[in-house]
Design brief:
single chain; 95 residues; alpha+beta; 5 strands; elongated
Length: 95
């Protein structure tokens, strides 16, 4: 049965602690990036995009940003992936 089940995507969301948050600009609007969505690719590597809200307040569109090449953010993503794997391995089924 397990060989017959095809999983097309694995994704997790990680909250970025305040000390690791950063800003980026899109369409002349500055955003503070507060979360990272991480997907596991079919080859086992990870892909990540960051999301946040306009720094000036209000609601912004659901706009993705590249995650900077930062050892702190890489460590956060690695720890988040390990934590998600642990939680998935202990899932209790539909309930």
């Amino acid at each position: 049965m397990n060989d017959e089940v095809e999983v097309s995507a694995l994704a997790i969301n990680i909250r970025v602690p305040e000390h690791l948050q950063w800003t980026d600009v899109r369409r002349d609007v500055e955003f503070t990036l507060t979360s990272i969505t991480v997907r596991m690719l079919p080859d086992g590597h990870l892909a990540a995009k960051a999301y946040g809200r306009p720094t000036a307040g209000g609601r912004g569109g659901y706009t993705s940003f590249a995650v900077p090449d930062s050892s702190g953010l890489h460590a956060l993503i690695d720890a988040g992936a390990a934590r998600a794997a642990d939680r998935w391995s202990q899932q209790l089924g539909l309930g």
